[in-house]
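name: query_chain
kind: protein
chains: 1
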Amino acid sequence: PYNKVVGTSGLYNLKNEEVTTCWLGWFCIDPTIRGHGLGRKLLIETINIAKQQGCLKLKLYTSELPQEAKAQILYEKLGLKIVTKTKRRDGIMIYFREKYIGD
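structure:
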């Protein structure tokens, strides 16, 4: 049990996409307490909330930056597959992931 905020997560929709498509945003866990399954629990709960809100597809984008490496593993384990890759102007690779979450 923690007496402080140790992570955050959010969902949003884009106006130019179907209302049943949700984007994962602001997903993070305090680096000092990673490795205890909290990120997995938070992401699963966020997916459940997305389902309750009527979302059928979950999307996110992330990068190849080292601080996002563990998140990449988590996303892959939970079925968020890379569907597109693109490079930013600074050369950093951006990964767009998605997963069908409808039952």
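note: The radius of gyration is 14 Å.
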